[in-house]
Design a protein that fits this description.
MetI-like fold; two-stranded antiparallel ribbon; 1% strand; Sugar ABC transporter permease
């Protein structure tokens, strides 16, 4: 019997002699190849639809081109002409004004709604209702709000007069009211997206913080001030960046509802890019405006990322 055992023991290693030995380097190389295989579609899309157009935009911004004929080199003349263009300066002021109106208000409202819907009964239905405007096309929403904001027969002015005896303003024809009116629409449309992000941030806060605060006798306001808001700062930081980028790129509402008017009171940077390119057919100047917008967004984002170290607090810190 000992002989049989020794025979089996001797023949056992021979079963693995034909298998190739996988070294650490070969395994690492295989993993790298599979990783490159899976990210290849995204990388191709990024290069074809983002990086190459970005490089071409910088090139076209230094040329005179009407979109059809030959291109001629203009250097930085297109950038200089844009900074000297009164319409471009008006567009920058209007866009910054729109950003100030929409970003803080939208973030505060979304945070309050998320806190209110975090543990309420029937929260799934409420979340669905608040999120529905987000999946609706902005052009369709703008057309509906054109009717609501109509100064003569719009529902808003009608209800203001019947219920409160107030003569409603000329929402889309008054230069002082038109941009707040568009901002109101944008806040309503973006509320659902920001609310969902804040809800995700609230779900990531450990309940142990609130339990400890309740034991210490902290009120709900103190809990929100000292626990919820600080631990929501990473989400607030992300929402702020995305909201500012979106506000700098506002176009649909202004194009559909007011066509940049009245008296260019709702004339934004992207609307200026559209007008310069597809109305005046000066693609060099239009692309220069787009490059300036890109630099503005990049600068604001980098500034926010640098300043975030002072007020963004992570739970594991």
């Amino acid at each position: 019997m000992n002989g049989k055992l020794s025979d089996r023991a001797g023949t056992a290693p021979a079963l693995n002699q034909g298998e190739p030995k996988r070294t650490f380097l070969s395994t690492k190389k295989t993993d790298a190849l599979w990783g490159a295989f899976f990210i290849a579609p995204q990388m191709v899309g990024l290069i074809v639809f983002s990086l190459i157009p970005l490089i071409m935009a910088f090139a076209i911004s230094m040329m005179n081109w009407d979109g059809f004929g030959a291109k001629t080199f203009a250097g930085f003349d297109n950038f200089v002409s844009q900074f000297n263009d009164e319409d471009f300066r008006t567009a920058i002021v209007n866009t910054l004004y729109y950003t100030v109106l929409t970003v803080p208000t939208g973030i505060i409202l979304a945070m309050l709604v998320a806190i209110g819907l975090n543990k309420v009964r029937g929260k799934i239905i409420y979340r669905l209702i608040y999120f529905m405007p987000t999946i609706t096309m902005s052009v369709a929403v703008s057309v509906v709000f054109m009717w609501l904001f109509n100064a003569d027969f719009g529902l808003i002015n009608l209800y203001l007069k019947e219920w409160f005896g107030i003569q409603g303003p000329k929402w889309l024809t008054d230069t002082r009211i038109v941009m707040p009116s568009i901002a109101l629409l944008s806040i309503w449309m973006g509320l659902g997206t920001n609310m969902v992000l804040f809800l995700a941030g609230l779900q990531g806060i450990s309940s142990s913080y609130y339990e400890a605060a309740q034991i210490d006798g902290a009120t709900r306001w103190q809990q929100m001030k000292n626990i919820t808001i600080p631990l929501l700062s990473p989400t607030t930081f992300f929402v702020t960046i995305m909201s500012i980028i979106g506000s700098f790129q506002v176009f649909d509402q202004s194009f559909v509802m007011t066509s940049g008017g009245p008296a260019k009171a709702s004339y934004t940077i992207v609307y200026h890019i559209y007008e310069t390119a597809f109305v005046e057919f000066t693609f060099g100047k239009s692309t220069a405006s787009a490059v300036i917008l890109f630099i503005m967004i990049l600068s604001v984002t980098l500034f926010q990322m640098k300043m975030s170290k002072r007020w963004v607090h992570y739970e594991d810190q």
